């Protein structure tokens, strides 16, 4: 079991949560994002650390408000390795006011190649780390009898409401291989 899943399960086990909220999160869950990350081979020691001193990364990290750091490169150039490095880096420098979510798109696996799966994966991690945000989704979930998680437009509205919540704090989303996600 990945460290993220242990952390998320531990968090879910000790936090007071209504039956509706726990059912909601159980239905939202698709797979362990940490296990998807862990399937990649570890990076070679000393690689990737260049990014931490790159001016674009430092500017992105220090700026306020919504921002995107877009890393591009040819296939096989190490973008996924760089993504796993960043996830590890953010997990090792945890902050109580920062939420880390990540998703690895992969066109070889049904659960990792759709926009619905991507949003469900991000929402699951987000809602486990800030349970107050569940309020943005519970109404939709109750109205649709749990079918909320099959509709991209509804998931997008829930994500938007969560990210607009004034109590959210900083969120870092690492999204890898978006080109392998279905249009």
From TrEMBL:
Protein name per the record: Nephrocystin 3-like N-terminal domain-containing protein
Gene3D superfamilies recorded: P-loop containing nucleotide triphosphate hydrolases
Domain called Nephrocystin 3-like N-terminal: residue spans: 46-182
Pfam name, any one: NPHP3_N
Record carries keyword Metal-binding: no
PANTHER family (UniProt xref): AMELOGENIN, NACHT DOMAIN-CONTAINING PROTEIN
Species whose genome carries this gene: Stereocaulon virgatum
InterPro entries assigned to the protein according to its UniProt record, in alphabetical order: NPHP3-like_N, P-loop_NTPase
SUPFAM superfamilies for this protein: P-loop containing nucleoside triphosphate hydrolases
Keyword Repeat: yes
UniProt keyword list: Repeat
